[in-house]
Structure formats: C-alpha cells, structure tokens
Amino acid sequence: MNLNNPIYYIRGISNARASKLTSEIGLKTINDLLHFFPYRYIDRTKFYKINELVNNTSEVQIIGVITQVKTVKQKTGTRLIARFQDETGFLELVWFKGHKWIKDSLKINTQYVVYGKLNHFKGMFSIVHPEMDILNDYKAKLQTKLQPIYSSTDKLVNSGISNKVFRGYIQELLQQIFEKIEESLSSEIISAHKLIGKKEALLNIHFPTSPQMLEKAQYRLKFEELFFIQLQLIRKKIIRKNKIKGYVFNQVGEVFNEFYAEHLPFKLTNAQKLVLKEIRKDVASNAHMNRLLQGDVGSGKTIVALLTMLLAIDNGFQASIIAPTEILATQHYYAISDLLKKMNISVDLLTGSTKVKKRREIHENLDNGQLHILIGTHAILEEKVSFKNLGIAIIDEQHRFGVAQRSKMWKKNKLPPHILVMTATPIPRTLAMSVYGDLDISVIDELPPGRKEVQTVHRFDKNRLAVFNFMKKEIEKGRQVYVVYPLIQESQAMDYKDLMDGFESISREFPIPKYQISIVHGKMKAPDKEYEMQRFVKGETQILVATTVIEVGVNVPNASIMVIESSERFGLSQLHQLRGRVGRGGDQSYCVLLSGIKLSSEAKTRLKTMVETSDGFKIAEVDLKLRGPGNMMGTQQSGVLNLRIADVVKDSPILYNARNAAIDLLKEDPNLLKPENNQIHKTFAEISKTSGAWSNIS
Ligand code: ADP
Ligand code: MG
Q1: Cα angle for residues 644, 647, 651 (degrees, 5° grid)
Q2: Residues contacting ligand 1 via CB (< 6 Å)
Q3: I need a labelling partner for 32 at 20 to 30 A (CA). Which of 57, 317, 610, 695 fits?
C-alpha cells in the first residue's frame, strides 16, 4: 500500500463509491483522502435530555430507545417515523429515504445514541435522518470528543456516504497507512518552530485527542502548506535572478541627465527616488528585472516610468508602456510627449483606433529603431508589432492583462526586456507574499507634497439636491465635477437606463449654455469617447457624466468633485480608484458617495471605510477581509490560493514564519541537497511535479 494508490485500496471503499468521491469532491488517491481535512468539529461529550431541548438548540445528541416505528403516506411522499424516548420525554426521528433498509435495521427498545439537527414544529421536536449508534457499540468504538465534520455533497449523502461513513473511511485509512506517513520537514525546522510531527498532526486533524492537540495539528499543517508554497516562490525568484540574464543599463547618460536637470517639473519625492534607485540597481545588474511597482493613485508612478525609459534609451534600447484602456494610453501619450517636448526623443501612440497608414509608419520606425518610446494599449502586443531592441516594457494596471499575451513584441530580442508592472491597487502584504512572492516589489508610499486629502462624505439619494447645489458652488469657482454611475455587466440595460436618466436630470439641473456636460460610457465608439473626454480635459465642459470607464488613470487636476451614484454597488477598490481622480490639483477636493437608504452591512462597512480613510493599503486590507483572498485582483488565475487548510488573511502570522523559514533554508542550502533536508527535498519535488499553478507574471 502506498499513498499514491487509488482510494478503493482502502478497505470498505468500493469502486463505485470511489468514483463518486472522485467526481463529487475530487478525491483520487489515498494521499488526497488523507489530506481532506474536516472543516469543523462537534463536541460529542455533551448529551441532552429530551426535556432540556429548546427551540433554538441546533445539533443534539441524546440517549434513548425507539418504542414504535410507522410509515406515513403524505402528498410529498412516504416517510418513516420512529418515536424516540428517554426518561424525560419523546421526539420523532424521521426518514424520507431508505425506509425499507432503515426500518429493518431499527431495533425496538434498544438503547441508541442519536445525533442530528433538531427541528421544531407545532410543539414537537424531530430529527431528520439522524445518525444512530447502538449505545454499546458507541461506547466500544474509538471515540474522540471532537468529532470531525467533512464537507460533502447531496449526491454523496444520497449514495450512502454520510459523514459517519466517511469518518469510517478515514479511520480505516489511518489504520492502514499510518506507519507509511513520512515526515516532510527537517528536525531543525520542527524544533525551531515548535511543530508537532506529521503523523501526529494528521491523526489529530482528523480525530483530535484534545482541543489543544487539534490546535497544534492545525498549526503544523498550515505551516507546512504555506512553507512549501513560499519555498517554491522564493526558489523561483532566486533562479530568475541567477539564471535569467537581462540587458545591462550600466550608464546614466545624456538623455536621463538632461531631463533630470532641466525638464523635471518638480522635485521627486523621497519614495520616488528610492524606487528609482531600486530599479536602477536591477537594470544595471545583468539579471532580468521583474518588478511590481505599487503606488496609490496620484503617487506619481508615471514619472518613475518615464525616467526608467530614459535610462533604457541612454543605453541604446527602446521602451514601451502598455495601458489597459485607450483613454489611459492616450493620456500617458500626451503627458509624456509634453514632458519630453524640449528633448529629441520620439514618442508615438498605438491603439485599436490608430489608422492603417499611421500604423505602418509606427511598425517601420519600431523596426529601424527610430522610434524610442511606444505607448499604447494591448494593440502593442499584436503579432505585427516588433521592436528593434526593446529594453523595457512597462505595464500599467497589470490586473487587466492576461499574462500569456506578453511575449510577442520582443521576438527580435536576444534577451527578454526588463518588466516593470505598475499598479494603483495596493495589494495587502500577506497577499503580495503569497501571490507575487516571486516578484520584486517596490512601493511609493508617499504622495507629492501639497496634496490636500480628499474630503469624503456619504449622502442618501434624497439629499441629492443639496449635492447639486454644492456642485454649482464649486463650478462657480471654476472647478469641474465627475458624476459616475455603476455599470455592472449582467444588468447592462438597466444600468444604461440609470445612466441616461441621471444624465437627463443633471442636464435639467445644469442647463446649457451656462453649463456644458460631457458624457462617456462603454457603448460609445472610441473616437466619440475620446472627443467627450478631451472636452472635459480642456475645461470646455464642467461636468463629466460617466460609467466606470474613467476608473483608472484619468488626470484632470482641475476636477475637484467626484460624485458616485449608487455607491453601495461599487467594490472598495473601485471606490478608491474613482476617488483618486480628484485631489490632483492644489484645490480642496471632495468625494460624495450617494446611496439608497437600505444598505447591507458590507456596503455600510465599505462606505464607512471610504469616509474614514484615504490610505490605499488600509482600504485594501478591509477589502481583503470583506471579500476573502479568492476575490482579490489577480489572484484567481494564480492558483496559489487553493489552499487546503491555511488562509492567507487569517493565518498571516504563520505565513510570515513559514516565509522566513523558507528564506533561511534556501540561504543555507539553495538546492536542498544537505542530508538533513532530505525530507523537504522529497516533498518539494513531489509538489513541484503536480502544480503547474505557480507561473504568474512573465
Ligand atoms: P499615478 O501614480 O496615479 O499614476 P501620476 O504619475 O499620474 O500618478 O501623478 C499624479 C500627479 O502628480 C501628476 O499630475 C504628476 O505630475 C504629479 N506629480 C508626480 N510626482 C510629483 C512630485 N514629486 N511632486 C509634485 N507633483 C508630482
Ligand atoms: Mg497612473
């Protein structure tokens, strides 16, 4: 018997049931079953008397006897009912399925232990499909106080695999293979982190001998799970640094220096300087850079991107920025062209709506090396686009891109270009460690000086008039206003109606010619969107009514109010992004969150968080707590979060410990070749074989 044998090797698991277990909950091998952990435990030391039961008692365990069994026909089908009593009263046991078999097996006037969920109907208690043990058997069997409950499906239960049966399998399994379970960690790590052994942990996770042992078992197994993930991520990072060569940008040349000395429009913040230093160290090192740059909205990532590109140009390379939307790409293009206008650097823009003739020109100039910087959307990633020598690719708002798309544009390169991924969605540290643990991470954690914090308020719909008046006052001062509507895929038609109704009522409230209004939404053609956006950017319109297409990146420093309609329907990170559109100039800015009166408690938390803080990392932490790691940006495809037992949010202290243990280990023994790390090596090799899930980001 070995752990990779199929589960039908276990005594009692028939082939038919084995295939049910595979199709329903994915259990194939004995090892799978061994690592299928209970999701909760119930205390089976407590017995109830029937007269102690109250309406809201949920799961109960009672000792008593069956005095009578009858079959009752009803409209909804036949049911089997047994009268069950102890010395204090009686209740009913009910079965809808398997009558015949159950009826034959029930023994009248024999003491049973009955366990199940208590129902209460018209003064009568009942338990449907109870778990039954004859008292004497129950006493004789190995009983733990904490009884494991495994997640299951209706199909499993209906095919006879109840939790009780499943527990029996696990018991059988442990008896058959217990001696074969091998330790997977080194004794050094085990003692340094005060872990219990693997065998003991597996036994206690299934059948805890005490609550204390259960806790130790959980800690050990979570640690192990996180440890091996970290080991993979960190090892991958080390390999990348040692093996994957990158272009060397070893000189800071004329272009960089001229720009820095003469055209930089402001002093860099310390955070920007620090990040630039990190990047320069990377690109001068002969290794390939793969860096994630996190910086809150408005923290000034663009200038860092530009300076990095100038460094590439100084070393004879081309550079590129890829943005998720046309609006954003266009805006980068204008901003960067403007910054470079006094310099002899060629910059161009390539998007889905670039005309064929222009496109050809771009292709040619990329090919012959005359074009230094290409800014664009995913249009840049098309087959035909090919650089002479791309030195760095900067990806703005990474989460919008599929990872696989990224490799075509550098097909002429000898080496892969350096990659800088910029994101304004702060990723909580624990999540970054588990999902992007193999990337280098830089953070701009400081806003440019002189920014006034955006004042945020929450108002109910019925106070909209006051909001309109406030908008008028600000517009009189020369400011501009965004009004944003949600656009959620499934209910598009309705959302457009909301948007159009809103647009109409705003048009009535803010009539032409005194007021001019732009409107931008997803159904418009790109040139129309662009036209409307530009009117707002140039200050020709005072109000921009939009769906969330403006979410990322749009920069209009004169806009000072962000009104978010139906704000209860937005996620926290979206709200934060939207709010980041204002507060970009010197004026006091405002964010108004409008909502209906009825709010879910989550929505309340979201709006309250927005009102209380503007720190993107704090907001991201709340978001992570509300939604769980599986729903966070960029985690779905990573697979790193398909954890068996650990939870990167709740178990973050264990995560830190496991990560440090992995770092220390790889420092001492990079290839896990020392004899004392033999078991780790073995487990690591097995895991690496089965998981293709670890390759995120280039
Ligand atoms: P984001 O990180 O959101 O992309 P941007 O790069 O668009 O931020 O910068 C936001 C605004 O702040 C821009 O108008 C930019 O010119 C300005 N800015 C960036 N860095 C500084 C700085 N060090 N001092 C003053 N203003 C800055
Ligand atoms: Mg930006």
Answers
A1: 130
A2: 266-269, 272, 295, 297-303, 424, 448, 555, 557, 584
A3: 695
Distance CA 156, CA 172 (A): 19
pTM, 2 dp: 0.68
**CA–CA separation, 631 and 617 (whole Å):** 17
Per-residue DSSP letters for 54-100? -TT--EEEEEEEEEEEEEEEETTEEEEEEEEEETTEEEEEEESS-HH
Tokens for 613? 């803080």
What SS3 state is found at 674?
coil
Tokens of 496: 């457009």
Instruction: pLDDT band for 637, please (50, 70, 90 cuts).
Output: very low
Q: Which of 496-528 are b and which e, b meaning 16 or more Cβ less than 10 Å from the residue's Cβ?
A: bebbeebbeebeeebeeeebebbbbbeeeeeee
Burial 117-141 (b: 16+ CB within 10 A, else e): ebeeeeeebbbebbbbbeeeebeee
- Ligand 2 centroid–CA 423 distance in Å is 8
How far is Cα 520 from Cα 485, in angstroms, rounded to an integer? 11
* Closest Cα to atom 26 of ligand 1: 448
Q: How far is CA 567 from CA 182, 252, 510, 549, 579, in A?
A: 53, 47, 22, 15, 11
**CATH number corresponding to 455-613:** 3.40.50.300
In this predicted structure, what is the pLDDT of residue 33?
94
Q: Which ligand does the CA of 303 lie closest to? A: 1
Distances (CA, A) of 190 to 387, 445, 674, 685: 52, 37, 16, 20
Domain residue limits, the chain: 45-142, 254-444, 455-613
Domains 254-444 and 455-613 alike in fold: yes
Confidence (pLDDT) at 617 = 83
Radius of gyration in angstroms for the set of CA atoms belonging to the chain, rounded to a whole number:
32
pLDDT at position 693 is 36
Closest CA to 97 of 75, 71, 65, 69: 71
Neighbours of ion ligand 2 (CB under 5 A): 553
CATH superfamily of 254-444: P-loop containing nucleotide triphosphate hydrolases (3.40.50.300)
Grade residue 200 by pLDDT with cuts at 50, 70 and 90: very high
- The pLDDT tens digits for 144-189 are 678 898 988 888 888 889 888 999 999 999 999 999 899 999 999 9
Q: Enumerate long-range contacts of 189-198, CB under 8 Å, 24 or more apart.
A: 189/227, 189/661, 189/665, 189/680, 192/661, 193/223, 193/657, 193/661, 195/219, 195/220, 195/223, 196/220, 198/224
| 183 CA from centroid of ligand 2 (Å) | 49
Instruction: Give residue-wise pLDDT tens across range 374-404.
Output: 999 988 888 788 899 999 999 987 654 443 3
The closest of 563, 560, 624, 549 to 592, measured between CA atoms, is 563
The CATH-assigned architecture of domain 45-142 is Beta Barrel (2.40)
Output b/e per residue, 479-495; b: 16+ Cβ within 10 A: bbbbbbbbbeeeeeeeb
Q: What pLDDT score does 408 carry?
A: 62
Q: How many Cα atoms occupy the beta-carbon half-sphere of 410 within 13 Å?
A: 23
